[in-house]
Every structure is written in C-alpha cells, then in structure tokens.
Amino acid sequence: MRRPIPLGRRRLDWILLAFFALNLFFITYIVDIEQLTVANPVHFQYPLWPPRFFVDMVHSYGSRYDPLLMARPAFWRMGIWIDVIWNGPFYAFAIYAIVRGRDWIRVPALVWCGSMSAVVLMILAEEFNGIHRTPHFGFVLALNLPWLLLPLGTLARMAPAHLFTEPVSAQAAPARPPSVTAQTEAERGQQ
User: What pTM does this model have?
Assistant: First the structure.
C-alpha cells in the first residue's frame, strides 16, 4: 500500500505548481490563444477573448522584440495549437496530480517534457537564425529559458516510479474492519 506524501514535504513541487499554473492561466489561454484568434496582428478586430489589454501587450512585445510572434508562420501556429489542445489540459491535470499526490501523472509529464522541449527548440532556432530572427536574441532567449529548463527539471522529477507517494508501514496501515478479518480467517479455514 502507498499513501500520498503531503505537499508540505515536497517543497520543490511548488515550483512545478507555480510554472504549470502560470502556463494554464496566462500563457496558454491568454497569450497563446491571442495568436489563434488574431490571424493578422497588423489588420484585425479585437476578439472576444483575450481582453484588449492582453492583445495589446502581446502585440507590443512582438513589435519590439519578436518578429516571429508577429509573422505567425505555419509551424508557429501549430506549436500554439499543441499548447492549447495538449498542454493546457495537461497543466490542469498536473496541478491536480501534484496537489493530491497522484503518481499517474508521470507518463503524461514525460510526454509533455519532450513535446515542450521540441517546440521551444524549434522556435529558438528560428529566433536565432531564421527568416524571422529577432535582433534581440539574448532577451528572447532569456524569456524562453524557463520553457527549456522546467521540462528538464520535470524530467528529473518524474524519473522515480513513485513521485508523490510512499509506502505505508505495517504500523501505520489502517486496521481491517472486523468483518473482513473474520471473513478472511473463515476462508483460510475452508482451505
């Protein structure tokens, strides 16, 4: 038998929780969704979501530092779709699993590590030396670095088979109800 390790004893998991929450509530469904609801950032009408302030914020950053974000080529949009369709739900499940101490998140987290790393590396390659390269690569790299480092940290965290649980010792195991104990003894007597 295994039981969840209290979150208070898993202090490094708070970093994953904060990162996944930032992605779920800001990056994926505000910043990224803007790039799907606004096809052409030069000529557009404000969408219902995200709010105008966030659309203007994304466009301001893109205009100043990130021509790739403003160009929105096909591979970029596909990366955004991956974030919205796969990563967004993953973040919600991961937050739940980490808080509740559920080991089943391990395999989805490993898949997320690979997909996130691949998408970010492709984007950074274009930002560094592609058609839409940024003149501010150091700044753009610094902003994107957490999306390279946290997948590596998550990969290391997900290495053990039992991430968030520990064995229950015989002393700490709950006693069986008397009816179950009597039934088990009766079954043994019949054998």
Answer: 0.85
